[in-house]
Design goal:
By secondary structure, this protein is α+β, with helices and mostly antiparallel strands. The chain has ten helices and five strands, in the order ααββαβααααααββα. It has a five-stranded mixed beta sheet with strand order 1-3-2-4-5.
Length: 235
């Protein structure tokens, strides 16, 4: 379910031309850097993660479902790095798709912080700490909306992320405890490990009903969603 803050500040509509330019630029970045990112960020792939009872495809039972249309609806999962420029470029496109398919699909976010991004893990920890206070989507939005301010910085941006938590009205003592708790990083690492096992080689990577999507345009994603809706009888 979307938060009140997100509902009060809906994404501005993007023209088809702008949307196509964003996706094209993002795909170029992914194509050029995918192999390098994989080499820097991942180790050997392990066995595919076991599907947990009651979990949506390519998720765990505790994964964050930002849009919940029910277990029978198509499930779109995005593995993301909040510092990744390609993820930042996809962000407004994904928000438009979420609006277009509202009530028809499940949309799930999963962490995949890239080791070569100095603040990717810090950002993921901040989002996870916010999630523990029920504000995962608010912090998700804040990270991408401010990415140009803090991305590619080699010094820690943890204090800036804490200021986001304060602006969102989080309990800062609980936030600090969560960021410092090894279990929080373990939760992020769990998604990273699952992504590696599923063959994620860069970000963003999308799965639809458990199948990894190979995208070259926005229409590839929307066409896949339309097919899934047709098959599920939800179109």
């Amino acid at each position: 379910m979307k938060t009140d803050a997100a509902a009060a500040n809906p994404p501005r509509p993007l023209s088809p031309r702008v949307r196509s330019a964003l996706i094209a630029g993002a795909l170029v970045v992914v194509a050029i850097t995918g192999l390098l990112i994989y080499a820097l960020a991942t180790g050997p792939r392990g066995p595919a993660p076991r599907q947990e009872a009651g979990a949506l495809p390519a998720t765990r039972a505790d994964s964050y479902v930002l849009d919940d249309a029910g277990p029978g609806a198509p499930t779109l999962v995005e593995f993301m790095d909040f510092e990744c420029e390609a993820c930042g470029a996809f962000y407004p496109v994904v928000e438009q798709i979420r609006e277009q398919y509202a009530g028809q699909i499940n949309y799930v976010i999963r962490y995949f912080p890239i080791a070569s991004h100095a603040n990717a893990m810090n950002a993921a920890l901040a989002v996870e700490a916010a999630a523990q206070q029920g504000q995962v989507e608010d912090m998700y939005h804040r990270m991408f909306q401010t990415q140009a301010e803090w991305g590619e910085q080699q010094t820690s941006q943890a204090d800036l992320f804490r200021s986001f938590a304060e602006e969102l009205g989080l309990d800062l003592a609980a936030y600090d405890d969560a960021v410092a708790d090894p279990a929080t990083q373990e939760r992020v690492q769990q998604d990273l490990d699952d992504g590696q096992a599923l063959g994620v080689q860069g970000t963003p990577t999308f799965f639809l009903d458990g199948q990894r999507l190979e995208l070259s345009s926005v229409s590839d994603l929307t066409d896949a969603l339309d097919r899934a809706l047709d098959e599920s009888g939800g179109a």
